[in-house]
Amino acid sequence: MKLRELAHGRTGDKGNTLNVSVICYDAKHYAHLRDALTPERVKAHLVDVVKGDVVRHELPLLHAFNFVLGHALGGGVTRSLALDAHGKSISAALLDIDVKDPSPV
Question: Model pTM?
Answer without folding.
Answer: 0.83
